[in-house]
Amino acid sequence: MIIPVKWSDEGVLMLDQRLLPMEEKWLTLKSFNEVADGIRNMVVRGAPAIGVAAAYGIALGAKNFVGTNVDDLKEELDYICGVMGKTRPTAVNLFWAIDRMKRTFQKAKAEGKSISEIKQILIKDAKDIHDEDIESQRLIAQFGGELIENDSTILTHCNAGALATGGVWGTALGVVRGAVNQGKKVSVIADETRPYLQGARLTAWELLQDDIPVTLITDNMSGHIMKQGKVHAVVVGSDRIAANGDVANKIGTYMVAVLAQKHGIPFYVAAPLSTVDMNCATGEEIPIEERNIREITHVQDIQLAPEGISVSNYAFDVTPNELVTAIITEKGVARAPYTDSLKKMFEE
Amino acid sequence: MIIPVKWSDEGVLMLDQRLLPMEEKWLTLKSFNEVADGIRNMVVRGAPAIGVAAAYGIALGAKNFVGTNVDDLKEELDYICGVMGKTRPTAVNLFWAIDRMKRTFQKAKAEGKSISEIKQILIKDAKDIHDEDIESQRLIAQFGGELIENDSTILTHCNAGALATGGVWGTALGVVRGAVNQGKKVSVIADETRPYLQGARLTAWELLQDDIPVTLITDNMSGHIMKQGKVHAVVVGSDRIAANGDVANKIGTYMVAVLAQKHGIPFYVAAPLSTVDMNCATGEEIPIEERNIREITHVQDIQLAPEGISVSNYAFDVTPNELVTAIITEKGVARAPYTDSLKKMFEE
User: Which residues are CB-neighbours of B87 under 8 A, at least 6 positions away?
Assistant: First the structure.
């Protein structure tokens, strides 16, 4: 059972995903700044996991607060949340978790709780966010699993597994695990997902651990394999879903979605409602993170491209809603028109 | 001026493309077996370059023949051609060059030439193949350049440059160079082209040498960039073109072609007629090479994927003719229906 981020009395524990699959090393992060660095530097990644990690980071920052004045704590928390909010711009779960922790603080403050009570309340809320995330993935696994037919091969891009969430299930890999739990025979094709290789390093590792058959391919191979009729469904996660169902996800998702449509293959997005940003009307409004070009020009210390080359490194792209067959959430399966179906899920 | 393979009195000289862009090292290959290994192990790659290298390898094998009987030389050449023909199955220029060298031998034998005369005839024919290849690229550059508008950004996949051909121009990069020579302002977006990174290592290097602006991206980024309106034309090479215009090229080309069509971007294929296989009615008949999975699981000695993972490594895919805007050859620009237009080019 994979849980990539945990609370402990020593600090926030993070499985260092940069070292997987070769090494399983846990880091103990003792300040909110270390947690923010862990998110920024992709020790932990995946939108739901980032949300959980940010909540723990804020709780840790509050716990480490040495003042005696609640207003000073508020100022400190505002600062902490500001630092957290600058780590990864696309994953909306980050901002969702920050907002929730802020509201929890405001409520506790309004109720006249003491500083030590507020610290405990924030720690408990971060743990609740974590537990609720795992429960959401369990439900996503169940609803999503029902969409998968027996004897299916599922293509997935990047890692939307237990490692990308609070743990245990995952979103896209939650759907795979859900189908397997429902007794279906399922195998997975994993895109390696350049430049960070989340597919090769993380998805492959997770599925090997669960004995779910997995075949690794390069990102540029999925079209060829779809053309051969070897893919029955595509399932991916998301970093932010707009109110109209446009889906921001790892760079390359858009190409997979276009190819899936061309070949009549259903394209499913699995994500908790904390990934849906009702304040973003369309995908046009979702900020797309650009990362350091060294991720592309080097693998560790090996240089792959000539000195001085110009490089673009967009971390995400947006798949328009018309390419999305369904969005699988913890409240059930949303279908087009998403402006209505997603709205309904929040109202339930 | 880049010429990746050369004839010398010492043997066949090959620029070791596996070491580019970090090191420019020339190998001197002293037997046909070393040349065959050089092709198989991708010291040289790219269909036209493979054709030239194979011709030189056969000439070298003949030169090294120590017998005195022309029938024995024929037997030796049959053996050499058998070895050459097993190096890379998809590149049809390989078989085209083998057939041409065989015919040249048969003609010389029929004319009663001596063994030492035959050796000289074969060396000369290999050099002619090389010269003709460079001349073909020059014409492709001219015809292709005319299709490119001023102020264009051209996306290319893999390396179809001077390095992939007899040299100087290249096929897809020939079109870029042709447009530049015609006074047009052109910039290039180069897919890195996993797993072998011909785009990152070779295309980027070639264009930097020529001071043509080039931006490197990962393969999974081209769709996002097309969606942003930043690509005005796609130009790629080919390893084999069927009589109906279906195009086998580096894995990932098919996905680029599908995305180009979706965005209304012209998709051009640049290749000499030696790449067109009139014996293949459609792309279905083109054999697709599968290569060692270590190309995907490792970069040099760095392991990227977990031990024991199952991997597919298709080296090529087939882009159906309906996605191809035009095929640029040394005889001019062929358009659909290709069954007619390609046939006409061979008849001219």
Answer: B36, B39, B40, B50, B54, B94
Q: How many residues does chain B have?
A: 348
pLDDT in tens, A84-113: 999 998 999 999 999 999 999 999 999 999
**How much is the ipTM here?**
0.95
Interface test mutation site (partner A, options B17, B196, B211, B224, max chain A beta carbons within 10 A): B224
Which chain B residues are Cβ-neighbours of A303 within 8 angstroms?
Answer: 22
Interchain pair B251, A317: CB under 8 A: no
* B162-181 per-position pLDDT tens digit: 999 999 999 999 999 999 99
Nearest CA in chain B to A23: B306
- Summarised one tens digit per residue, pLDDT across range A186-241 is 999 999 999 999 999 999 999 999 999 999 999 999 999 999 999 999 999 999 99
Q: For residue B136, what are the contacts with CB-CB under 8 A and spacing of at least 6?
A: B48, B272, B273, B274, B329, B330
pTM: 0.96
Q: Which of A219, A239, A246, A277 is catalytic?
A: A239
What is the predicted pLDDT for the residue at A348? 80
Non-local (6+) Cβ contacts of B62 within 8 A are B73, B76, B77, B80, B105, B118, B119, B122, B123
B239: annotated active-site residue: yes
Distance from CA of A311 to the nearest CA of B (A): 5
Mean pLDDT (whole number) for A312-333: 98
Q: For residue B320, is the peptide bond before it cis, meaning its omega torsion is within 30 degrees of 0?
A: no
Mutate to test the interface with B, among A224, A249, A253, A289 (most CBs of B within 10 A): A224
Q: What architecture is domain B5-138?
A: Up-down Bundle (1.20)
Q: Domain residues of chain A, as ranges?
A: 5-138, 143-347
Q: Which fold has domain B143-347?
A: Rossmann fold (3.40.50)
Question: Which of B214, B309, B317 is facing A224, going by the closest CB pair?
Answer: B317
Say what the pLDDT of residue B140 is.
Answer: 98
B81: nearest Cα among B63, B101, B66: B101
Question: In B111-209, where does DSSP find H-type helix?
Answer: 115-147, 172-181, 198, 204-209
